[in-house]
Automatic annotation (TrEMBL):
It comes from the Bacteria. The lineage of its organism: Bacteria, Bacillati, Actinomycetota, Actinomycetes, Pseudonocardiales. This is DUF861 domain-containing protein. InterPro entries: RmlC-like_jellyroll, RmlC_Cupin_sf, UGlyAH_Cupin_dom. Residues 42-107 form the (S)-ureidoglycine aminohydrolase cupin domain.
């Protein structure tokens, strides 16, 4: 059994999509790849094309690998600008908007159950 899980730039992501907040008739392309689970935490890759989308977070820590975005949190009204190398902590249940400026790819560790 290998300890090398793969290369996050080579994973073929499973297509997803979020409704654009700027034009509800448009879907902003996103993709995901589930790498695995360690001690109950999920590990995966997520990518988003430019656009404005809304989401609700799980307990998550991620590292931006490439691209740029602005994330605004509804509860605190804080807006953060993120780019390559940034490490971000999200709290379960936070509503937010993502304005992806350049195609963004991140690797995440998260827990849906909050454990």
């Amino acid at each position: 059994m290998t300890q090398h899980l793969g290369n996050v730039f080579r994973y073929q992501l499973q297509p997803e999509g979020y409704e654009s907040l700027e034009d509800p008739s448009v879907t902003v392309p996103t993709g995901t790849y589930h790498i695995g689970t360690v001690e109950g935490a999920e590990i995966g890759v997520w990518e988003a094309e430019p656009g404005l989308i809304r989401g609700v977070t799980d307990d998550e820590v991620f590292v931006v690998l490439e691209g740029r975005a602005e994330v605004t949190f509804d509860d605190t009204k804080e807006t953060i600008q993120i780019g390559p190398g940034d490490v971000v902590r999200l709290n379960k249940g936070q509503r937010n908007t993502w304005r992806t400026i350049e195609r963004l790819r991140k690797v995440s560790i998260w827990s849906e159950s909050g454990s």
